[in-house]
Every structure is written in structure tokens, then in C-alpha cells.
Amino acid sequence: MEEKVEQEVVSMPRIGDAAPEFTAITTQGEINFPKDYKGKWAILFSHPADFTPVCTSEFMTFAHMEKQFNEAKCELIGLSIDGLYSHIAWLRTIKEKIEYKGMKDIEVTFPLIEDIKMDVARKYGMIQPNEDSTKAVRAVFFIDPKGIIRTIIYYPLSLGRNFEELYRVLIALQTADEFGVATPADWQPGDDVIVPPAGSCGTAKERMEGKENMKCYDWFFCTKELDKEEVLKKVLKQ
Asked: What is the pTM of this model?
């Protein structure tokens, strides 16, 4: 008789869900998430462990870019299943000893969550047993000012994240919200954006009249110009 092997069910929130709520101790004091971040964008991200090289390179990069994210009305919140004292010691080591790609004396000032019991990591599906049952994968959650999950990106333990892409995603999400458009492949501020489908070829032609900045390749695929300065004026702090 074959023995049944029970597999752990991993609960994972989805795009469009309300961000799971939690209260946690961090390197910057206690936070109540997402309540404390209402009205702002937030990026909640996990890393496998303190005192590891890939994670160190990532934290230095995020800290180096923190002002850039803050100017886009976004706060950063990190997490691993290490304890608070480990977090503090690791961040001190980064500031005092580590130099990477010209970055040195890097001080991490955004919160790093203590999650020894893996409560938060499990709520967000950051523990994926087939990858590792005792470490969080490199998850990234983009949460909007209403506390709704808008984008989720997962990376395996061995793969460091592309932080320019994370910033691009943030700006693209905000642009879509502000202007009621979609962004095409590889979009950057200043590139043409996609206008929602008109519903028919005739409607598309009517919509184009008097709109020189719009171009329709077919009824379902219309783009329009959107000035880079106009985009940045909307999404960056003034």
C-alpha cells in the first residue's frame, strides 16, 4: 500500500487582493501594515537571510535608491526570518565594511522586519518549500495607496533582483492610474502609451479625429504620446 506524502499548502495573496494585515517589530520600530502606509505606495520585499552576499548587494542597492523611490511617493519595507539583533548587526556591517559597485558607507534607514516565526512570510507566500522551507524567497509586493496588491514578483534564492526594473514598474503603475492608460513592453517615461481598446474600428477612427498624438494600428491597438515631463510631474513629489 502506497504511503501518502502530505504537501504543505502555500497560501499566496494575489494581484488585486487587499494586502494581508500584520503588526511587526522592525529595525525602525513597530509597524502596522498596511495601515501605517495608507495614502502612499509601498514595496514590501523579502530576502533569504542576513549576512549573505546576494542579499547584501540587494540591500545596498535599495538603500542607495531609497530617495529615488521616496520621491515617487513609495516607501520600502524589507523582511527576512532573522531576528532583530541579527538585522541590526548585519546593517551595521554593511555600513562599516562593505563596498560594492562604488557604494560604500551605505546606511539602511527603511524598516527591516523581524519574522523569526515566519508569520508574515507565510501570509505573503514568501516561504516556498520546494525552494527552501526555512528561508524566504526574494518576493516583491507593490501595494498601492489604498492597500491593494498591484504587482507581485518572485525570484529564487540564487537570483538578485533588477532594481531599475522595480523602479520602472512603480512608475508604470502610477502612470497607468494617473492617465488611464496601459504601458507597452519595455515602456519608459516619455515613450508612447497604449490607449484602452475602442471597441470597434469605427469608434477608433472617430476617437482619432483631432488627436494628432494618437496612432491606431488596428481597432484594438492604439497608442498616444505622453510627455515625459507630464508623467514625472504627476508621479514624483513636487
From this structure: 0.90
